[in-house]
Design goal:
Elements (H helix, E strand, L loop, with lengths): L19 E3 L10 H5 L5 E3 L4 E3 L9 H5 L5 E3 L9 H10 L15 H4 L17
Length: about 130
């Protein structure tokens, strides 16, 4: 499946759906409260991060309030310093397994929640490797 790299730039078509994006505050926390709220199972799981598949997300907003780490943003409300996460969510959702059930957060989740600059700790390998 090809990546939609012009997704944020090309808004010519009215029927283009927006997506939600998991950002850096999920790294090393990986709370899965959002999983139960998602009606379409569009979350994918890596070793220390979750992502949303942009083609599967129906823009329902249910995951935002469910995330205890405040790590999920609408594409339209994504802060400039987090724009790289749009492409990261798309890329990683193509290689990571889908997650449909909640799990315990990572052991040090509380310690890492709210810590900035966590992108350097993102593990991109698949859980299945």
């Amino acid at each position: 499946m090809p990546l939609r790299q012009n997704r944020c730039i090309n808004r010519e078509f009215e029927d283009i759906k927006l997506t939600y994006i998991v950002t850096d505050n999920c790294i090393l926390c990986k709370y899965t409260d959002c999983i139960d709220e998602c009606p379409v199972d569009c979350f994918y799981e890596g070793p220390n991060f979750l992502v949303i598949h942009p083609d599967e997300c129906i823009d329902c907003d249910a995951c935002v309030d469910a995330c205890p780490a405040n790590a999920i943003f609408s594409e339209d409300n994504l802060p400039d310093e987090k724009k790289e996460f749009l492409l990261l969510n798309e890329q990683l959702s193509l290689i990571w397994p889908q997650i449909t059930d909640t799990k315990e957060p990572l052991p040090d989740a509380e310690k890492w929640d709210g810590v900035s600059g966590k992108l350097q700790y993102l593990t991109k390998t698949s859980l299945e490797t």
